[in-house]
Design a protein that fits this description.
Elements: E1 26-31, H1 35-45, E2 49-50, E3 53-60, H2 63-70, E4 76-82, H3 90-101, E5 108-113, H4 121-127, E6 132-135, H5 141-179, H6 184-198, E7 205-211, E8 214-221, H7 237-249, E9 253-254, E10 258-263, E11 271-276, H8 283-314, H9 324-335, E12 343-350, H10 353-360, H11 362-379, E13 385-388, E14 393-399, H12 405-410, E15 416-418, E16 421-423, E17 427-433, H13 441-458, E18 463-465, H14 472-489, E19 493-502, E20 508-518, E21 524-525, H15 527-537, H16 540-560, E22 567-571, H17 574-577, H18 582-593, E23 600-605, H19 606-610, H20 613-625, E24 629-635, H21 642-647, E25 652-655, H22 657-661, H23 667-683, E26 686-690, H24 695-704, E27 708-710, H25 720-733
Parallel strand pairs: 1-3, 1-4, 4-5, 5-6, 17-18, 20-22, 22-23, 23-24, 24-25, 25-26, 26-27
Antiparallel strand pairs: 2-3, 7-8, 7-11, 9-10, 10-11, 12-14, 12-17, 13-14, 15-16, 19-20, 19-27, 20-21
Helix pairs in contact: 2-3, 5-6, 5-8, 6-8, 8-23, 9-13, 10-11, 14-15, 16-18
C-alpha cells in the first residue's frame, strides 16, 4: 500500500481482549501544544501492542507541564516531543532537562516538528541526546508505529543492560562482604543470603558438600531446617534429589519452584546450594546466579581450606584440646579483662612420661595422653579451660578456687586403664596467679614453666607457685641487653646467608639473611636469646637498619659476581617494622647500596600480619610501591582470615619448620603443609618451606607442589665468601 493509505492496515485487526489492559503497558508520553496531535497519536497507536504489551499514554500540553509530570513519572519508555511550543526551542530545552537535570538516560526521545527550520535535523541530533527526529507531515500511522516500536525495543535493551550491570555490581559487593566472614559455616550461610538477595527472594535453602559418600549440610535457612554438619537423609529427598543431580551434571539447574547452584571446588570437593523459589526467575537472574556461583566457589573452597588449617594450627590433633598457640590467645584475652585478678594458670606435667612412652610404645603413650585429657576435662570444673601445650604437658586455666593443686593431684590417684592395663602416673604442677602477673600470655606461660621447673627440682608429684623472687631471668635479660649494645658497637654482629633452592631443579634462587652474634670470647649467642632482648630494648631499630644495608650490599656483590636473578630475603622484626621511620630506612638502604628492589624480599611473621590490619595494609602498600616484595614467615602458626590475607597483597608464604619436620611422620604436619601450599596456589602466592633436612621431606614437598625449600639438606647458613663458593659449586652441579 502507499503511504497515503497505510491507515487501512489497522482496520482488520481483532478487538483487544479484555485481559490485555491488565498486562503491564509500555508508557508513552506525548508532549505537544496541539490537542489534535494528542488525539491522532492516541487513535493511531492505542489498539497496538509492542512485544506483547499494550501502550499507555501520558499527555502534556506544554514543556512546563511535561517538566512537572516528569518529576513523578518514573517508568516512561518513550517521549514523543514537539520542538516548538511556548518557545521556539522549548522541546530542545526539555530534552536537556530530561538528560542532564533528571539524569534519565534510558527513556527514548522522538522529536516531532511541524516547523523543521526551527531545529534542523542534523544539528538537533548532533547537539542533543535524542533518538529520532521526524517532521509531523511524514509521520503516517505505520511510520509512527515503526518509530515507537524501535524506540521501545531500544529502551527495553537499555533496561536489561542496566539490570545486568546492577546485578554484577551486587555480585561484586556480595563477594566483598562474604570475604569478611570467618569460618566455613558463616561463609556458607552468607552465600545463601547473598544468592537470595541477588534474585530478590527470601532466604530459604541449604548449602551442601559431599562427605563420606553422602551430602552434608554446611548451612541452612528458612524452611530447610538442617543444622550445620548434619547429613541429608532419605526424608530430605525433596532437597537431596536436585542437589545430587546438580553435582552429577556439574551444572546449575533451574525449576519453577527451586534452583540448585553448582559451585566447583578446586581441592577436589564440589559444593551445591538448593534455593527454594517463591516465584520463578527469568533468564537474566539465572545468568547472574551462574556468575555468582562461579565467583563465590573459589572463596568457599579457600575458606574451607583455611578452616581446616586453623583447626590444625590451633588444636592438638591427638586430644582435640586447644594447643599452645590457642592458649596464648586465651591468656592474652583474659589478662586484658576483669577476670585476671582471680585467675590462675597451672601447667600439669605427667611425671616420667618419656620412660613410659619408650617402654610401652608410642601408641600406648598416645592412649595414655588421651585418657589424661579426658579425665581433666570431665572431672574438673566445666568452666575451666584445659589445653595441651607440650608432648606430656597439659594446662588448666580458670578461677583460683577451681584451679586447685590438691584437686588436680587427686585426679591422678586412680590408675588409668590403657589396653586392659592399669597405669599409675603422677603429675607435677607449676602455677601462676595471673592477678600478680605483669606480662602477656606468652610470658605467663614462661613464668608457669619456671615454676614447673622449680617444682621438679624439689619433688616430683608436687607443685610450686611462681613468685617475683624467681626474676633471675629478668636480671639475665638486662645483663644481656648491655652486652648486646656493646657488642653491636664493637662489630660483633654479622650476617650469614642460607640458600633457598628450587625443589624441582636443585638450583639456588635466593637466600635468607640471618643475624648472628659472636661475643669477644668467640662464643655464639643464639638468635632466639638476643633478638628478643634487642626488641625489648629498642636496639633492634639500629640493628635492623644495619641488617637492611648489609643484606642489600651483599645482593649487589652477588649480582656483580654473575648471579643476576638472585633474591635476597631479609627478616624484619615487629618492633622495627612498626617504627615510624622504617619505610625511610628501607628506601635509604636501597638507595645507598643500589640494590634492585625487585630482588629484595622482606619477611614478616604471621603474628605481625594480624595486628592493626588497616595500618598494616597501608604500610605494606607503601613498601610494595618501592618494588620490594613481602613474605609471611612461619605461616600456619598464627591466625589469618582469608579476606585479611588477600588485602595484605603479600607475595610469598613460608611454611614453618615445625610442619616440615612433622611431614614425614605425623599426618597433622603433612596436612598443614599441604593446606598452606594449596592456599598459596589458590591465592597466586609463591611458597617456600623452611627447615628441610632430608631428601624425603624435599620429595614430599615437591610432590605437594611446593616450589622452594630451605634448610640443612641444601646448606647451612653461610658467610658471604662461603656462599659464593657454594653457589659456584651449585652452578657446576646443576
Amino acid at each position: 500500500m502507499s503511504g497515503d493509505r497505510d491507515d487501512l492496515l489497522f482496520l482488520d485487526e481483532p478487538p483487544e481482549p479484555p485481559t490485555a489492559r491488565a498486562r503491564r503497558a509500555w508508557r508513552v508520553m506525548v508532549v505537544d501544544d496541539d490537542a489534535d496531535v494528542h488525539s491522532t497519536t492516541r487513535f493511531a497507536l492505542d489498539s497496538l501492542e509492542v512485544h506483547g504489551r499494550p501502550l499507555e499514554f501520558v499527555h502534556a500540553y506544554s514543556a512546563e507541564e511535561a517538566r512537572a509530570q516528569l518529576e513523578h513519572e518514573a517508568d516512561l519508555a518513550v517521549i514523543l516531543l514537539d520542538v516548538v511550543m511556548e518557545q521556539p526551542d522549548a522541546g530542545l530545552h526539555l530534552v536537556r532537562h530530561v538528560r542532564e537535570t533528571l539524569g534519565r538516560s534510558d527513556v527514548r526521545i522522538i522529536l516531532r516538528s511541524g516547523q523543521p527550520g526551527y531545529a534542523p535535523e542534523m544539528d538537533a541530533i548532533r547537539g542533543y541526546d535524542i533518538n529520532d527526529y521526524r517532521t509531523k507531515s511524514e509521520l503516517t500511522r505505520a511510520k509512527l508505529y515503526t518509530a515507537v516500536a524501535a524506540a521501545i525495543r531500544s529502551y527495553q535493551q537499555i533496561r536489561m543492560l542496566e539490570r545486568g550491570r546492577a546485578g554484577l555490581e551486587q555480585i561484586v559487593q556480595a563477594s566483598t562482604e562474604l570475604m569478611a566472614l570467618h569460618g566455613l559455616s558463616a561463609f556458607a550461610h552468607g552465600v545463601l543470603e547473598q544468592a537470595a538477595a541477588l534474585i530478590g527472594q527470601p532466604v530459604d535453602g541449604v548449602l551442601c558438600a559431599p562427605a563420606q559418600g553422602r551430602l552434608q549440610a554446611l548451612a541452612a535457612a528458612g524452611s530447610c531446617r538442617l543444622s550445620a554438619g548434619r547429613m541429608l537423609e532419605v526424608e530430605h529427598a525433596a532437597l537431596l534429589d536436585p542437589l545430587l543431580r546438580t553435582l552429577k551434571q556439574r551444572s546449575s539447574l533451574y525449576e519453577s519452584q527451586h534452583a540448585t547452584l553448582y559451585l566447583p571446588g578446586k581441592s577436589g570437593r564440589d559444593f551445591a546450594a538448593y534455593l527454594k523459589l517463591a516465584k520463578p526467575i527469568g533468564e537474566l537472574k539465572r545468568r547472574l546466579l551462574d556468575v555468582f556461583a562461579r565467583n563465590v566457589a573459589v572463596g568457599l573452597d579457600n575458606v574451607e581450606l583455611l578452616t581446616h588449617l586453623n583447626q590444625a594450627a590451633f588444636h592438638d590433633p591427638l586430644t582435640g584440646l586447644p594447643n599452645r598457640t590457642r592458649l596464648v590467645e586465651l591468656l592474652d584475652t583474659l589478662l586484658t579483662g576483669r577476670g585476671r585478678a582471680a585467675a590462675t594458670l597451672s601447667l600439669v606435667d605427667i611425671d616420667h612420661f618419656a620412660e613410659t612412652n619408650d617402654a610401652l610404645g608410642h601408641h600406648f603413650g598416645d592412649l595414655l595422653l588421651g585418657a589424661v585429657a579426658q579425665r581433666l576435662v570431665s572431672r574438673l570444673d566445666q568452666r575451666l579451660t584445659v589445653a595441651r601445650v607440650g608432648s606430656d604437658i597439659f594446662c588448666v586455666l580458670g578461677d583460683d578456687r577451681s584451679v586447685d593443686p590438691a584437686a588436680i593431684h587427686a585426679l591422678f590417684a586412680t590408675p588409668f586403664t590403657i589396653d586392659s592395663q592399669d597405669v599409675q602416673v603422677s603429675a607435677t604442677l607449676g602455677l601462676v596467679r595471673l592477678g600478680e602477673h605483669d606480662g602477656n600470655g606468652a610470658d605467663a606461660l614462661k613464668d608457669a614453666d619456671i615454676a614447673l621447673k622449680r617444682a621438679k627440682t624439689q619433688r616430683r608429684g608436687g607443685h610450686f607457685y611462681f613468685t617475683r623472687s624467681m626474676g633471675e631471668e629478668i636480671r639475665t635479660r638486662v645483663n644481656m641487653m648491655h652486652a648486646l649494645r656493646n657488642g653491636f658497637r664493637r662489630g660483633e654482629l654479622f650476617l650469614v646467608y642460607q640458600p633457598q633452592v628450587c625443589l624441582a631443579h636443585g638450583r639456588a634462587e635466593g637466600a635468607e639473611a640471618l643475624l648472628r652474634w659472636r661475643t669477644e670470647d668467640g662464643s655464639l649467642v643464639p638468635p632466639d636469646r638476643f633478638i628478643p632482648i634487642a626488641e625489648y630494648s629498642g636496639l633492634i631499630i639500629d640493628i635492623g637498619a644495619w641488617v637492611l644495608r648489609e643484606a642489600c650490599a651483599e645482593l649487589v656483590r652477588l649480582r656483580a659476581a654473575g648471579y643476576a636473578d638472585f633474591m635476597m630475603s631479609i627478616n624484619v622484626s615487629q618492633v622495627q617494622f612498626r617504627h615510624p621511620q622504617f619505610l625511610a630506612m628501607l628506601r635509604r638502604a636501597l638507595d645507598e647500596t643500589g640494590a634492585p628492589p625487585r630482588y629484595v624480599e622482606l619477611e614478616i611473621t604471621e603474628s605481625m600480619a594480624m595486628e592493626e590490619p588497616e595500618v598494616l595494609v597501608e604500610l605494606l602498600g607503601e613498601i610494595k610501591r618501592t618494588g620490594v616484595s613481602i613474605a609471611i614467615d612461619d605461616f600456619g602458626t598464627g591466625f589469618s582470615s582469608l579476606s585479611h590475607l588477600q588485602r595484605l597483597q603479600v607475595d610469598r608464604l613460608k611454611i614453618d619448620r615445625t610442619f616440615v619436620t612433622e611431614i614425614t611422620g605425623s599426618a597433622r604436619g603433612s596436612s598443614i603443609a599441604q593446606m598452606v601450599i594449596q592456599l598459596g596456589r589458590n591465592l597466586g602466592l609463591s611458597i617456600v618451606a623452611e627447615g628441610v633436612e632430608d631428601d624425603r621431606q624435599a620429595r614430599i614437598l615437591h610432590e605437594l607442589g611446593c616450589p622452594l625449600g630451605q634448610g640443612y639438606l641444601f646448606a647451612q647458613p653461610l658467610a658471604p665468601q662461603a656462599l659464593l663458593e657454594w653457589l659456584a659449586k651449585d652452578a657446576a652441579r646443576t
